[in-house]
Structure formats: structure tokens, C-alpha cells
Amino acid sequence: MSTEESGELTADLLAQAAEAVITSQYANVNLLIRALRVRYATAAALMDQLRQHGVVGDATRDVHFPPEQATQIAERIRAGEPATG
Question: Distances from the Cα of 7 to the Cαs of 3, 56, 61, 75, in angstroms?
Fold first, then answer.
């Protein structure tokens, strides 16, 4: 059973999503669907998690980190740490 099928969002998948969004400077569900090859529901849940981690904004989904920090933020998320701080 895949992570998507089980309904779980792993730290690694969330880190990949953060890296994709920060690198592209474009926070969009469709980007995550294409970049990570996940279904809409999973991509939407990832966007919600990215918002909770402070990677993207609430309404406009603006990205809060420059592309140069993509790897650093992804590693923090993989380690279970907050993206900010």
C-alpha cells in the first residue's frame, strides 16, 4: 500500500512538497500533483501542511522562503522540525 493510499503524509513527502514549492516560488496544488505524482486529495493535504509549517501563506499561497533555502527547509521538515526558526 502506498503512502497516498494509506492516507498518511510522511515527513519525506512533505519535505519534497516544500522543496518543489520553494524552488518554483509557486504554491499550487497542480504543481504538487505534477511534481510529486500524487492525487488531488494528497496534494491539497500537503498544501494545508505547508501552510501550517509556515512555508506558504493562507489566502494567496505566497511562498515565504527564497529558492536558495529550499534544501535547508526540506531538511528541517524531514527532521520533524518547524520550517521557521
Answer: 6, 22, 23, 22
